[in-house]
Write a structure and sequence with these properties.
Layout (H helix, E strand, L loop, with lengths): L4 E2 H9 L1 H9 L9 H16 L8 E2 L5 H13 L5 E9 L2 E10 L5 E6 L7 H16 L4 E9 L12 H4 E5 L1 H15 L2 H5 L22 H4 L16 H9 L16 H12 L3 E2 L3 H5 L6 E9 L15 E10 L5 E7 L7 H12 L6 E3 L3 H12 L4 H8 L2 E3 H8 E2 L9 H8 L14 H12 L5 H32 L2
Helix pairs in contact: 1-2, 3-18, 5-7, 14-15, 17-19, 18-19
Length: about 500
Amino acid sequence: MGDVITKTQILAALQCPRRAWLALHDPAHATPLAPSRQALRDAGRNVGRLAHALFPGAVLVDEPDFAAARVHTAALLAESTVPAIFEAAIEHDGVTIRADILERLPGGAWGLREVKSGTRVRDVHLDDLAIQRHVLAGAGLTIASIELIQLDPDYEHAGGEVDWARLFARRDVTAAVETRVPEVVGRLEALPATLARVAAPAIEPSPHCSTPYRCEFWEYCTRDQPPDWILHLRYMPPDRWAELRAAGTTRLRDLASADGVPMVLWRARQALDSGREIVSADLATALADLGPPVDYLDFETISPAVPRYPGTRPYRRIPFQWSLHRRDDAGTHTHHEFLADGRDDPRRAFAETLLACTRDSARPILVYSDFESEVLAELALALPDLASDLEAVRVRLRDLLVIVRAHVYHPRFHGSFSLKMVAPALVPGFGYDDLAAIHDGADATVQFARIAADECSSEEETRLRAALRAYCARDTEALLRLHDALRALAV
């Protein structure tokens, strides 16, 4: 096959050949990973290392140089006393892989085991394993079974040491992988020619750029798209984009009328044409029962892959912080907050302090998305003695995101209805740029997880706690200011 091709390149090409070419020839055009995203990737690698506990006596091939790793792997394959090999380096027909785990089975056969930090089987996982299956079989190994090892969402931490055998679920995916091998191998045949091209393949950006993952070259490949390109609007369903594209409608200005067009697209076109916000006639009605008096509420959570607190499961949302701005009948507002220590399960203290702040009131509570409602429902299940009080808070929640999406569009939304786009667009001078260490919810999650794991010095923890308080308070201030702006637009 000529030059060596890696499994990573093949997976990139399965999503988009242009992505694979750019990753090889122009990697500098990739958007760097945000620190929060890098932390999540590191957490995934840690899950892979923890799964090693399932294979006592296994040997790690730790040479970074692939040629040296191949030699080590060959020696381990030949040594019958080695029960399993981690990071086995194998090459066949110019394709290289590092298999997470090869488990020695009776009769000279092997089991291919791939560790993923999620909790469900995805097509990209099967593609990954199909590539490995192809290479291993081509290299002469008999693969008798294929397993995807993932965190078991039903494992509940009982406290003390984690039960590693129960934390992981071993799912046999042999049949599913075998059926995918011919398709993956078939698409592999064109990859050497693609990577050898002088210029990147001319592939138009589309929803495929976000499946199965958001491509790191999205910003680069869309840099020349006009401001009214429809895919600048987030959450465009692939089938709807295909219909619009087939009709030659790729820009908002291509829309001739509102007939048969999602209202959000038509309102976005009107906003771009006028250069100002477009507001529906029904906005006042939508805001009619939202106060004042009114509260504005925001939560922050962590979702540890490996359960940290007794009674929790992998990726269970653990709320650790809330912020609440309150406006009374006179228009005066006050601020209330809670931030957990994190060394112990924060859920009860979170719930009790929130209830103490909100229990003796019937005023509406404005949030942004259904996130807070979901967290309260989960808290009610975890704390049954507080369930009725938590439900009483939950039924008072009103979602401003639903109202904004249904009734308002401003050119400065740039296709996004996130609070961090909407509030600065509708509230002149308001923003998040002055915040220090915490800029979004992902940052908050990562930094609090570090605090809870005792990974910070006392000085850094003090600084991060101040940043967490400032960030969460800014979100509820954003809700308050956004509510004011919407009420002004509804007049």
